[in-house]
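Um, can you check?
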Amino acid sequence: MGGSQNCVPSGSWRKFIISTTVPFVGGLIFILIWRLLRSISFYCNQRFHLSKNERSSRAFCMARLSRRFFNFQRMVKEFAEDLSYPKTRKGRIMTWLTMIFTIVAIVLYLLDTYKSLERCVDRTEPTVILDFLCNVFFLWRFVIMCIVAKDKLSFWVELNSLIDFCTIPPAFLTIYLGTTWLGLRFIRAVRLNWFGDEVAAVKLISSHKMLNLSRTLCQFVSFWLTAGGLYFLVDNMSVSTTTCMRATCGMSFWQSLYFLFITLSTIGYGDLHPKSQESQIIVIFIIIVGLVCSPIPI
């Protein structure tokens, strides 16, 4: 099943932004409505007292209807908790898979940075299939963590969930449309922040000193790749493609990494610099975040 012959990738980034926004906003609204209905139901049960016979018959019917459902729900939740707890055998396997698929997804993103931001794809391409499989796993993990979460609203807006919203729906949309947008895939690198703890959870590192070193290194690489991806995206989206025939009209991803490293380390050779106002604003933002959140003391 190849890509569409009538594929027009230009402007498809809007569809990918919508695919990220709609599930997040839709789920958020659903959670808020569910909380509101539950509060109304609780209020009604307290406000309008039922007779003793009504309460007993209602309780009996509800017990018969919901016993099997709640038994199944309890089994699913226990299974999900077993997977999410890294000290169990299933939890360690889940942690290993999360680490492996995260690295694979980041490597695939780095390979795709050599190509256009927006392009038509063949759905049978190995990189497209592999990226899709990675995001199928991340979707499964998202569902598991959602089941385990006690506060669904807090889970929905936490950083890990936002990473999934920015990366999972676009992978499915790529398969559906036959076009891809490199866009927000760099956000997957934010997950490297937790690699130090995950390495400790699977007992790859036992030394406290090595654990602190691995955490610092992972946080630095995570920030560097994420900042590089953000600058690469903004720099290439802000440069007019009418006067440029290359795949990327601004800096390449690797030039972005080099430029940010030289800038943040205050060396500043001056061989590369932002060419648009949008890029200059992003550099200022990255420098401020880097100074505030730097894991390495200055």
Notes: The chain has ten helices and two strands.
